[in-house]
Design a protein that fits this description.
By secondary structure, the protein is mainly alpha-helical. The chain contains eleven helices and five strands; from the N terminus they run ααααααααβααβαβββ. It has two domains: 248 residues, no CATH class; 44 residues, no CATH class. Zinc ion binds next to loops.
């Protein structure tokens, strides 16, 4: 109804104005809002949210049972005393603004969804291996907004995990982080139901983790507002980057099949399904994991773009 729409518009204006009055003087704030609107204009928020709506946890699919790839980053977190909650006696509900094992795990889930967004399809087992055996999470945590230009391994040492455990929030920065998140989520969603809540909580946890990383990278024990600004810049850049080029291609051992002419294209080393856009006949290509490729034949390999 028109009246309701006007109310929402009015609410948004009020919350925006209050935020601007309070934080306009902070360097980088207007840049974040501009990037947010850019992602809105490009329908990227909508597309990402659609991934959440349709999401089925790929690890919960019992048939066929998946062998779960182990993430180096998560293993290292555990080694440094950042434990999954089921292993902690006396576990108290985690505060979303603190970093614990679930925060690191949340980054992996977020990257899976982002990968699904950029692939334009649901993930198959080889996608999970290619993603989780890549150095992408390390790049993101160590490189933040320049995660895409690191070459080779950016190895996060034990000291990184020890430092991240000791980082604490500056009170003003925490208020800024909460109010900015609230502004953005209010803008995105008129009503918050299950998927909207999961979406906003996962994004918020990623921001919290990145803000901690930003503090660590500037050798500070405190998260200040500048770290939150950097975290949002990094998050928006990650969302807007085609991460399909940053996965570990060697786990793509299956083949592509043309949906029109049924031609097979086994993938060679260092090739991934998204390196190929279509068959020589113009047909669309579908990737089949290696477990489906037992019947592969000796057709000539075609390399296209
Ligand atoms: Zn074809």
């Amino acid at each position: 109804m028109v009246g309701e729409y006007n109310n929402r518009e009015q609410d948004l204006k009020t919350i925006y104005q209050e935020f601007i009055n309070e934080f306009n003087h902070i360097y980088g704030v207007m840049g974040i809002l501009k990037q947010f609107i850019y992602l809105w204009d490009e329908n990227i928020w909508e597309s990402l949210f659609n991934v959440y709506v349709k999401w089925k946890n790929p690890f919960n699919i019992p048939d066929p049972p998946l062998t779960i790839p182990v993430s180096l980053l998560l293993a290292q977190a555990i080694r440094n005393g950042i434990q999954p909650r089921e292993l902690i006696d006396d576990y108290q509900d985690s505060n979303v603004y603190l970093v614990d094992y679930e925060t690191f795990h949340n980054l992996h889930i977020f990257l899976e969804k982002l990968y699904s967004l950029h692939l334009g399809r649901e993930l198959v087992e080889d996608d999970l291996w290619a993603l989780h055996k890549s150095d992408l999470p390390e790049r993101v945590l160590g490189g933040l907004e320049v995660f895409d230009i690191f070459k080779g391994n950016l190895f996060l040492g034990d000291d990184f995990f020890q430092q991240i455990k000791s980082v604490i929030w500056d009170e003003e920065a925490l208020i800024f982080c909460k109010k900015l998140q609230n502004l953005l989520i209010t803008f995105l969603f008129e009503n918050k139901n299950g998927n909207e809540t999961i979406f906003s909580q996962e994004l918020e946890k990623v921001v919290v983790l990145l803000a901690h990383c930003s503090a660590v990278s500037s050798d500070s024990q405190y998260i200040i507002i500048g770290n939150v600004v950097r975290a949002y810049n990094a998050l928006f850049k990650i969302i807007n980057t085609d991460i399909t080029h940053l996965v570990n291609k060697k786990y793509y051992t299956g083949f592509l099949i043309c949906k029109d002419c049924n031609e097979f294209y086994p993938l060679l080393e260092n090739e991934s399904p998204h390196d190929f856009s279509h068959c020589s006949c113009g047909g669309g290509l579908e990737y089949l994991s290696s477990e489906n490729s037992n019947n592969s034949n000796n057709n000539q390999i075609f390399k296209g773009d």
